[in-house]
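Why should sequence recovery work at all? Because a backbone constrains its sequence more than one might expect. Tight turns favour small or flexible residues, buried strands favour hydrophobic ones, and helices have their own preferences. The token representation captures these environments compactly. In the example below, the structure is given first.
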């Protein structure tokens, strides 16, 4: 009887394994949902929508973007962490993916690697310091001087607590010895709107999509966070040249992840579709126009990057004394 039960169990297990393999090989057979934890119109959202269009053609099924805003992408990230690992619910994340658990510890309710399977690092986006075009702050020196002479300090916006703009602003304030007040929003786009309106003094913004706003004299770029001057903003100094060394390390990234347990074959198909999208001339052109640097690496390379990125931000957070709000 025991032998009969063991044989039956083995047969059932084998049948289930064959069924899973068959479903994986046929992937995808339905719409793929990509969750973005930031507002529509922001850098991560813009890049995601460009990629979704081209991945749809490669995979033969619709790849759609859904924005789950709030808590510096925590809401969207938690949703994907708990999703079924079948490749139909994905996450397009930025550096807050690593930073949230550093700030919130167990309250983040997810592990950046333990709950996710890396698919590919998509792009990097240099940060630039921007203010309203008609602001009296014409240079970064003006900004620092004004902050020093203002009792409560200047305000700076971000896409949320622990995001790239928050970390960059806090780091600059620490190095410059000035007081600034962080004002978090539900995404970069609404924060930028308040900066242009003059209701928030300045912010660090991924240079993606702001060239037109600068040309239209709605924004002024005070400094760029890249290691070298950016051609899109001639004459604008780098943070490094102004005494803020290695500031390029604050540049946010965009990457795709799946829930942990997603079959390797599915991750591989998604990785291939991602790389093909990033190799398309129109995508390369669009990325360049947005100021993003396309990457497209392997799941193993992205995993190694996530580990080193976490170590880097842990040092920045400790040095700057940033705390969870």
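From this structural description, the recovered sequence reads:
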């Amino acid at each position: 009887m025991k032998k009969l039960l063991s044989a039956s169990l083995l047969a059932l297990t084998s049948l289930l394994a064959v069924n899973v393999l068959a479903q994986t090989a046929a992937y995808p057979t339905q719409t793929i949902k990509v969750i973005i934890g930031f507002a529509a119109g922001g850098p991560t959202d813009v890049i995601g929508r460009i990629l979704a269009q081209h991945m749809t053609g490669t995979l033969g099924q619709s790849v759609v973007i859904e924005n789950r805003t709030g808590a510096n992408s925590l809401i969207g990230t938690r949703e994907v962490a708990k999703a079924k690992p079948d490749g139909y619910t994905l996450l397009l994340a930025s550096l807050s993916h690593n930073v949230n658990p550093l700030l919130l510890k167990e309250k983040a309710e997810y592990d950046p690697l333990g709950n996710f399977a890396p698919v590919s690092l998509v792009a990097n986006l240099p940060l630039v310091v921007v203010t309203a075009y008609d602001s009296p702050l014409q240079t970064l020196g003006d900004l620092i001087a004004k902050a020093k002479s203002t009792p409560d300090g200047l305000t700076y916006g971000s896409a949320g607590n622990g995001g790239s703009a928050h970390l960059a602003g806090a780091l600059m304030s620490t190095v410059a010895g000035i007081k600034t007040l962080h004002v978090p929003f539900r995404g970069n786009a609404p924060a930028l709107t308040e900066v242009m309106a003059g209701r928030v003094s300045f912010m660090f913004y991924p240079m993606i999509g702001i060239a037109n706003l600068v040309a239209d004299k709605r924004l002024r770029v005070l400094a760029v966070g890249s290691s070298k001057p950016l051609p899109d903003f001639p004459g604008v100094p780098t943070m490094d040249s102004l005494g803020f060394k290695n500031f390029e390390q604050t540049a946010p990234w965009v990457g795709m992840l799946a829930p942990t347990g997603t079959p390797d074959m599915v991750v591989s198909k998604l990785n291939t579709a991602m790389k093909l999208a990033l190799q398309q001339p129109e995508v390369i052109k669009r990325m360049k126009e947005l100021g993003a640097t396309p990457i497209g690496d392997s799941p193993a390379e992205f995993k190694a990057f996530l580990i080193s990125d976490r170590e880097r931000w842990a040092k920045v957070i400790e040095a700057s004394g940033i705390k969870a709000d």
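A few observations help interpret the result. The domain at 20-124+252-320 is CATH 3.40.190.150 (D-Maltodextrin-Binding Protein; domain 2).
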